[in-house]
Structures are given as structure tokens and as C-alpha cells.
Amino acid sequence: MSLPQKELVEELKTCWKKLWRERFDDKVRAEGVAAAEYQQLFVEQGTIIHATRDYKALNFKEILEQHQVANADRFIPPPSQVGGWNKFVKTHITSQRQRKSARVLLYCGEKREKQQPKKGGRGWLHI
Predict the structure, then answer these.
(1) pLDDT digits (tens, 9 = 90+) for 65-94
(2) What average pLDDT does the structure give for the chain?
(3) Cα Rg for the chain, rounded, in angstroms?
(4) Contact 41/60 with Cβ under 8 angstroms?
(5) Are 12 and 67 in contact (CB under 8 A)?
(6) How many angstroms separate the Cα of 85 from the Cα of each of 8, 10, 63?
(7) Nearest by Cα to 72 from 3, 10, 9
(8) What is the SS3 string spanning the chain?
(9) Cα(88)–Cα(68) distance, rounded to whole angstroms?
(10) Percent of the chain scoring above 90 in pLDDT
């Protein structure tokens, strides 16, 4: 991958994060509106970027494709329906690290004798 292309993607990512951080949330219409103009992302001021119904939200992959970035899938995390990177880390990496050693498995804590219950097991009496 070429270095200028990687710099372009990083610059687009910062603009993308800035767009979502600085958006205006219209609570009456339940939609997010761009507060400024982002020419690199092809978004004008006042463009609806997020809505609750019947709306095609902005897609970072499409923006990368418009900038003709090769292998745009590499820069985007997998969708949450598939599981994403967090699920991969949980299932493949942390499960291998959590294998307990034999010493931990052989350790048993002190067994304490049970104390006699107060009031013969009836609890406290309030008069």
C-alpha cells in the first residue's frame, strides 16, 4: 500500500470522526445534521447524516471508493452482525490467554467452619 494513500485514509478518518462529533442533533425530527461543510467527505452543511426512518446513512466505505482508494475494505471494521473485531479477540485471543496453570487449579482456599446462626436461625427479633 502506498504511503500517500494511507495518509489520505487517515485524513478522511479524522474528518469522519469530526463530522460525527460536531453534528447537530435535531430532536424534533429525530435526525443528525452536519454542522459544517466537509468537502473531502462530499458532505455539505445541513445534510442529514443520520435519521431514524427510511434513510440511507452515510457510509465511510463509499467515500473511500469515491476517492478511489484501493482495497477499501481493509480500512473498515467488519459489520456488527458478523461479530466484528471485538468478538474475534474475545473468542480467539483472550480464551487462549485465560488457560489456568496447574498451580492455580490445585489451590484450594481455606475451608472455614460455619458459625452458629444468630437466634437459632430465626434472624433478629424486633419488638
Answers:
(1) 888 888 877 777 766 667 777 777 777 777
(2) 79
(3) 28
(4) no
(5) yes
(6) 23, 19, 22
(7) 9
(8) CCHHHHHHHHHHHHHHHHHHHCCEEECCCCEEECCCCECCCCECCCCEEEECCCCCCCCHHHHHHHCCCCCHHHHCCCCCCCCHHHHHHHHHHHHHHCCCCHHHHHCCCCCCCCCCCHHHHCCCCCC
(9) 29
(10) 5
Residue 18's pLDDT is 92
pLDDT in tens, 20-70: 899 888 888 888 888 899 888 888 898 888 888 778 888 888 888 888 888
**Residue 14 pLDDT:** 92
Q: Write the CB contacts of 32 (distance below 8 Å, at least 6 apart in sequence).
A: 20, 23, 24, 25, 26, 48, 49, 50, 51
Q: Which residues contact 60 (CB under 8 A, 6 or more apart)?
A: 12, 13, 16, 75, 76
What are the residues whose beta carbons fall under 8 Å from the beta carbon of 118, sequence distance 6 or more? 124
Q: Which three cell numbers stand for residue 48?
A: 442529514
